[in-house]
Specification:
Distance between the termini: 37 Å
Largest sheet: 4 strands, antiparallel
Strand content: 5-15%
Strand order of the largest sheet: 9-10-11-12
Order of helices and strands: HEEHEEEEEEHHEHHHHHEEEHHH
Number of helices: 12
Low-confidence stretches: 322-347
Number of domains: 1
Number of strands: 12
Shape: globular
Length: about 350
């Protein structure tokens, strides 16, 4: 493990190389189905985008834990989740606790975005209460800089696309070699990697709500509050009884104010709830099988489709103002968690 410090690009050519390398990473993440490369997991060091968290280096489709989604929404999530967007490197909009939109991607400068915090008003008075307060985000360490100015990824669209195309074609031409017994990719087959079954905002919202006095006066009320995690299990026609230990582990960790941590076996699709407990065949398509299938078939029309998504996403990030979100939507609604958004008084 080493330390990576944020640093500026040396010149304009260095900035172009930075985004070209970002395109190379984007193609690799597309093939591996890597995810979670948001702004906190990437550091811009000169002309090199440095990933600092690879715990979700590859991913797989597991049992559906979405709550209340239509078939059209599920299909859209499947196809977009199988695209370059899954990496988290490209601009994407999430929904904050008050219904405002937030961009968390790894490649773009996120400064000047509105963030919402919960703060106390009237401290040490009878009128003391909690409210949402908006602040403006400053540039983070994922932001490439040239001459003290942050560089928006939309200004380097061609560099990103060209980098993606170069790596995609390399992988398409060398896929069979990469899968040989002596190839480095074989080491991936033996790994266990983290798998994210629900957006962490679902758990974070429940934990924030649990600190309200109405849940802290009674242990039964506190435990029942976390039973909301079971809603997807009792409402689904596809989740089987042997998967209920997953809910039990989610509830146990959340009640201890920990984000539940699950891992999967890359080669067989087992889901590990703890070092001693697992659910076999939880992943509908094991990650290794999907990686082999992708490397075995990387047609040019698929590359063109992904490049179109890249360009469309970068173009959308330049539109004035964030996209609107549905009335009453929240971060947990967007994540399919089935947990209502909190009012300031509930946090």
């Amino acid at each position: 493990m080493g330390y990576v410090a944020h640093g500026p690009c040396p010149d304009r050519a260095g900035a172009e190389r930075y985004f070209h390398r970002a395109g190379l990473l984007l193609a690799l993440s597309y093939v591996l189905r890597s995810t979670d490369f948001h702004f906190e997991n990437l550091i811009a060091r000169g002309e090199y985008p440095m990933l600092v968290d690879l715990e979700v280096l590859t991913s797989a489709f597991g049992q559906d834990l979405a709550f209340g989604r239509t078939e059209a929404e599920r299909l859209a999530e499947y196809y977009l989740g199988d695209s370059v967007l899954i990496s988290g490197l490209l601009p994407f909009w999430g929904i904050g606790p008050t219904g405002h939109t937030i961009d968390r991607d790894g490649l773009d400068s996120l400064q000047n975005q509105r963030l919402t915090d919960v703060v106390w008003r009237g401290a040490n008075t009878d009128g003391m209460h909690l409210v949402y307060e908006t602040r403006v985000r400053s540039a983070a360490d994922n932001t490439p800089v040239l001459d003290s100015a942050p560089l928006p990824v939309s200004d380097f669209e061609d560099d990103v696309v060209h980098g993606f195309r170069e790596m995609y074609r390399y992988l398409a031409e060398n896929g069979s070699r990469l899968l040989q017994a002596c190839a480095p990719l074989q080491a991936l087959k033996r790994l266990k990697v983290r798998t994210v079954l629900r957006a962490t905002d679902v758990y974070a919202t429940l934990m924030a709500q649990s600190r309200h006095p109405k849940f802290l006066r009674d242990g039964v009320a506190y435990e029942l509050h976390f039973e909301q995690l079971a809603r997807v299990f009792v409402s689904s026609n596809t989740i089987q009884s042997e998967f209920w230990p997953l809910f039990a582990e989610e509830k146990r960790a959340s009640m201890a104010l920990d984000i539940p941590y699950f891992s999967m076996a890359v080669d067989d699709g087992a889901l590990y709830l703890s070092p001693s407990a697992s659910i076999s065949k939880f992943m509908l398509h094991p990650s290794w099988d999907r990686l082999v299938a992708r490397l075995d078939g990387m047609p040019d029309d698929a590359r063109i489709q992904q490049e179109t998504i890249i360009r469309a996403t970068l173009t959308s990030s330049t539109i004035d103002g964030p996209p609107s979100c549905p009335a009453g939507a929240s971060a947990t609604d967007a994540a399919g968690g089935g947990v209502p958004k909190p009012a300031p008084s509930d946090v």
